[in-house]
Amino acid sequence: MSQGTQGAQLDLAGIIVGIRRMAPMSLFVVIFGLAFGVAALSRGLSGLEAMLMSALVFAGASQFAVLELWGPEIPLLPLIATTFAINARHLLMGAAIQPWLAHLPPAQRYASVVVMSDSNWAMAAADHQKGETNVGMLVGGGIALWVTWLFGTLLGVLFGSGIEEPQRFGLDVIMGCFLLAMLVGGRRDLSILLPWAAAALAALAAMAWLPDHTHVIVGALAGGLAGLLLPKRKEASP
Amino acid sequence: MTLPATAVGAIAAIVLMAMVTYLTRAGGVFVMSRVPIGPRVERFINAMAGSVLVAVITPMAVHGDWGARLALAATLIVMLTLQKPLPAITAGIVTAALWRML
Question: What are the φ/ψ torsions at residue A231 (nearest 5 degrees)?
């Protein structure tokens, strides 16, 4: 990311351009939001709670994953750990564009990342490498995603409450299928299967022998530790 | 430690999630302006991000019914061939619905 030119600015025109460029992708986000709304209702969240989660958390995979923890009681530590572990990739994404955002005033810098999500980050990072100084893609693209995610959730909440017996129509599997699609969607090499296998075995073991809901944390940590065993990437070696 | 799933409890849980998520969004920018994230930490985070999803999905497949298992299999196959999440998820839902209709 060091090839980018110096400087960065954020203005309304750039934000509007960002919103426009994200528009095609945003249509898909409506459908994911709808799926989340339906899944949230089926797990016992109220419509308002589902909307609030989409508005404030704005991170689809973690929202779907915590639905698995939702019940008469919500376990706090697994909730925090699951949210953190799934969204920990943001740490790397933020770190990658930090040299660019460093040119913005701190208030703009930390406000811009409120809407940082996978696709607007990817487009903005590509902009930066091409020498673009306007951060509008990150912010405008994020706003477009946020609005459509919220709109989709609203549709799911309105439409989902009318569905009786959601499992008959296969709607209870939306969550698992969404997470699986996110999991295998990225470009990866096969070595990632080692941490994933460690995570799967650890999660099943934790489910059998450890207290309820600890399997996500145990699996994530086991996978992370197994990741340390992987050979270094070419660019990482000195 | 648990929160009751009353309106107040659920909203508290959601606000907590929002705070943790913002921490991840701002944290990389904040930390990077002080210390660079080393390759070991990067490998750990990369492996952990996928592993948490694996840890959520695996019990669904192992403890779920055949409708759920076939749905996950259909999603996996379509995702690996087309690399498009929407058809993959649709394939999963349709598979579960068809299996349960039989």
Answer: -65, 150
